[in-house]
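Form 7-S
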Amino acid sequence: MFKTILKAKLRDIGRRLSYDWATYFILGPVIMGVSFLMGRKIFNDFAFGIGRIQSTWLSDETAVRLAFAFLVLKIFFNFLPLARRLYASEYSLTVDDLLPINFAIRYKVFYLEQLFRDLLFFAGGAVLLLFFGKTDLLVWPFMIWLFFPAVEIGFTLTWIHFWSPDRKKLAGVFSILAFLLIFLPVVQLSWWADFFTFLFAPLGYYRGFKVWRYTDMGRVAQFFVGHETRKKRAAARAFFGGLCRILPKNIRPLVQRDLILTARNFVPHIWRNLILVFLVMISVISRGQIALEIYCAVGAFVIASTVSPLFQMQRPYRTMDVALPLSAEQVWRAKLTYARLLALPIPFVVWGIEMLMRPLPGQESVSLLLTLLLIGIAVSSLVGGSICEGDQRPVLQYIVAAFLCVLATLFIAVFNPVLFLLLFPVLSSLKGSAIIRIENEGLT
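Output:
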């Protein structure tokens, strides 16, 4: 039975990869490898000589604390999405849930799916260790990737069994954990990590997945139904309506619709991006000699990249827009504005944390804020502007946008902020390509 299910899952994955095999295995590794090697060389040598961006350096203790913070944030932001997948509610009911399959086989299949979902997270951690020269720590992302799903599944099932799936109480507990991550010695953090692994891994398998997952099914389903209330939706509509009043009237309804869909969890990738952005913001506190411009660019890119899966997921419903008087340029500008709005708070948050931890004189602080704003606008604009690159395939669009964002960050932070003006001809070229692609899709 396990082999049969595994073969079906692998065929499904293989079918999806067959459409984008060149992107995953040829174009992606080439572009990301070039960006990695070029960026590391410039940030370590060339930019350090200019003095605007200092050479990268990160202590082993800081790397370990950031890793623990990443894992804690992943559990927190992935709590409700994982709960919806664990419990066969109306959001996650599939054919597999209706078949008489043993719980042990179900657990193995679910565990493998979690490994596949978490691969990008821990592969990114390994790339960061390579970027900072921490080759002696490379074995740890692989080990954590193998065993962390057991802890995450066990913790989620245990929490839901004794409490509710509500994230408010969980936020209070994780606030205490955030305090301990900063002040506890690294040795004690490692000891507690081992303790929770040996506690939640078997508890989630023998009790949570075998018994609690079935006994709590009705209570959890009822919570999920009552969690999305009309009051919250009305409040979201009012907030986004007020926010979009400053936008041009021809794109205002489109941007407001995209923001409301994001708030309703239409794009599950928003939780993954929030984890990464929050981790980037926290790491600003102990950034060492790493330039602040790098944190701003990474945070803006991660949160603005939500526009790519949103655009892809709206593709089946785009035929409903045919009856509306929408031009292809309006659609493109709406996604561009959406990406800019998502990334707008990033420069201010990064600058505020920096001023709180390492205050600067008035003129220098204003100059730094201006540079961060230019980087945030440039990065989010390139991410939103390249939305149609790669035939609306998010992975390919990520690669193209990342390459453009690296160049934009270097030009603005290393050379001169006036080079921000180069963004406009680039966006003009991207707009022309996007209009052709959208019109060929049959939207207008």
